[in-house]
Amino acid sequence: MIIKTPGINGFGKTNGCRDTGRAVIKELKDVNTNEEGREINKHLDLEEIHVNNDNLEEQSDLIYENSKKAFENNERVIFLGGDHSISYDIGKAFLDSEWENKEKCLIVFDAHADCMDPNKEPTHEEWLRGLIEKGFNPENVLLVCNRNLYKDEEDFLVKKKVKRVRIDDIENNLENVGDIITEFAFGKNTYLSIDIDAIDPAFAPATNYPVAGGISSRQFLYLAKRLNKIQELKAVDLVEIDLGIDKNYNFRTVKLAAKILAEFL
User: Fold this and answer.
1) Distance (Å) of CA 201 to CA 5, 81, 173, 249
2) Which pLDDT value is given to residue 118?
3) 54: exposed, middle or buried (Cβ count in 10 Å: 0-12, 13-18, 19+)
4) Could you report the per-residue pLDDT of 74-117, keeping only the tens digit for each?
5) Which residue, 170, 197, 179, 15, is CA-closest to 113?
6) Which domains can be identified in the chain, with CATH numbers?
7) If you ran DSSP here, which 8-state letter would residue 243 be given?
8) CA distance 99 to 198
9) How far is CA 105 from the centre of its chain?
């Protein structure tokens, strides 16, 4: 199942992310095969969570309830945001869902840590800290591609023993990083969250908080191919693509997002 999730809570800076899900689905029609050459199934089970971005409490409740219901009825659910604030409510639903008696883990690709002190309804800058403080085991969280953190966030991650894969690790041995990530998820029900700014803005320019020095689109597609093989991959989200910015780049980022999505279909 693919759920378009136009949730935004980014201080007004992420409004252009609202309708990205529709744009990615539209671009998917031009993606014929995945990285392994397998034909993409275009007969998609599509839904949308209809949210009012001006009512954050209601938005949060709707995303949580719809996500939890989707987890109960599907082996895998893909969420197309929206900004990264949606991952807080999806993460809560993931945490509260009942599967086999296995640990749950969260793998986050993001240039940032998103671990500032959280608001009542965490924004895209604090959702991960909010989720950890809500009860997600920090030792079952793996951050990949972080490269722009505040000191308070760094201190929080160290204190909570959150695991990280750094950009240099990817640059030095991409295949080994694929092994590290899949071994981290082995035997666990897994939620994968992808902020497009994990990828270098040369390849994915349509984000409001670009950070130079990210991984290439080719490196990420290799890792996506590996991530798709995680046996208990239950949830994937793809967030923070701003259509207003991307129209100036011939929708380069949306086209990349469609390629990424194809790896998980």
Assistant:
1) 23, 18, 21, 11
2) 92
3) exposed
4) 999 999 999 999 999 999 999 999 887 789 999 999 999 999 99
5) 197
6) 2-262 (3.40.800.10)
7) H
8) 30
9) 13
